[in-house]
Amino acid sequence: MSQRINVDKRVMVLGGAPEAGLVTQELLKLGYFVHWITPDEALPNVPEDHPRLTCYENCALIRLDGHVGGFIGRFRRNGTELSLHASALVVATGNERYYPIERYGLALSSNVLTVPQVRKQLEAPRSTGAALPHRNRRALLLLDLNGETAKEISAEAMRLAIELRAQWHCEVYVFYQNLKVDTYNLERLTRTMREKGIVFCRYSDPQITFSDERISVSYIEGTVSGELLILPEAVRPRTDTQELAKVLRVRVGEDGFFQDINIHEYRPGLSARKGIFFAGRCHMDGDWADIQTDALQAAANVDALLGPGFLEPEPIIAHVDSTKCVRCYTCVRTCPHAAVEMADYDEVIAARVVDLACRGCGACVANCPVRAIELIGQAMPAWVQSP
């Protein structure tokens, strides 16, 4: 087995989402050198003239070589290619928002608006008169219409409801089907809304009708009419998520977002591939407080891995007998951690397990058709190991 290997405290952060900025700032505080890369045109909240920070905009990852402790990212930027080295990588690309007209079945109009549209009117100068049609009116906020509303979207809609109550003096009714308030911040937000006089109405199969300039929504206990219907946007993975996952050799879930190593969130933010971490909305649904916490956790995960200044293999790792290997690539395809590669053994091509990248799960051992792979290590009982 390989001995410990010294590593640089150098990290790549991929993405231009706000949580990418939080990860970057936290890593800089911890003493790391950071390459902050985004395919977008601008990076948010970039620390000015930091000696350990380099930023790359309009930069797309096209290939990732190496493993934990020695990643080599190849990027395309303005028609040219560049290579960057790092010991670990954090993905914080965020998500995309859109108006799901197919799901809602409602076209937008002057009295049917999205949460961002209402907020834009709310923040407009008084001289524009944007707020006049809605002041002292009844606003209906409809969540969970034909599908569950994401937590971050629900939280923004609920904060908007409080501001409508305070600034426009609206009567606000919030219609919901399965509103999740399973975090401290969301629960506190719900309590504040009730204290401000905002009414919650639960529905099962809402009927929405339009008459003249009024909108009516039916729910379990009756019907409420108002002058303004507010609909939240929906979220989905960025269009480049699938392609990025292929380049990184990590998984995405059924919902299309990046998938943690454990779907039950026992180890949040860790990918199946050692040295690659997720942060924020590219892999989770949560309000802004949750996203901030997750970004700081990602930086802490990086520091837990690279902080000592060296890496060591797991107590149990897989080992390939090159004389038995038939180069069928079964182990390369089935390794969930991308720890197996083909290598040259004295002009003989055979599979090789990268010690630092192996987690010792044994998947390659179970799938090898010629039994050319075994698990070795100090933690493995002698009677289990091959003689």
The total count of strands amounts to 24
Q: Into how many domains do the coordinates divide?
A: 3
Biggest sheet overview: 5 strands, parallel
Named at the architecture level, the CATH assignment of the largest domain is 3-Layer(bba) Sandwich
Radius of gyration: 26 Å
Query: Level of helix content?
Result: 10-25%
Give the oligomer, counting copies of the same chain as homo and different chains as hetero. Answer: single chain
Instruction: Report low-confidence residues grouped into runs of 5 or more.
Output: none
Q: How large a portion of the residues is in β-strands, by DSSP E?
A: 25-35%
User: Biggest sheet, strands in spatial order?
Assistant: 4-3-2-8-19
Structural class: alpha/beta
Instruction: Classify the fold: give the CATH topology of the largest domain.
Output: FAD/NAD(P)-binding domain
Number of helices: 9
- CA-to-CA gap between the ends? 17 Å
What overall geometry do the principal axes of the alpha carbons give?
A: elongated
Overall pLDDT score: 90
CATH domain class name of the largest domain: Alpha Beta
Name of the CATH superfamily of the largest domain: FAD/NAD(P)-binding domain
Q: Which secondary structure elements does this structure contain, and how are they paired or packed?
A:
Blueprint: E1 5-6, E2 10-14, H1 18-29, E3 33-37, E4 53-56, E5 59-65, E6 71-77, E7 80-86, E8 88-91, E9 96-98, H2 101-104, E10 112-114, H3 115-123, E11 138-142, H4 151-168, E12 171-176, H5 184-195, E13 199-202, E14 208-211, E15 214-219, E16 222-226, E17 228-231, E18 234-236, H6 241-248, E19 276-278, H7 288-306, E20 310-311, E21 316-320, H8 330-334, E22 340-345, E23 348-353, H9 363-367, E24 373-377
Parallel strand pairs: 2-3, 2-8, 3-4, 8-19, 10-17, 11-12, 11-17, 12-13
Antiparallel strand pairs: 1-20, 5-6, 6-7, 9-18, 14-15, 15-16, 21-24, 22-23
Helix pairs in contact: 1-7, 3-4, 4-5
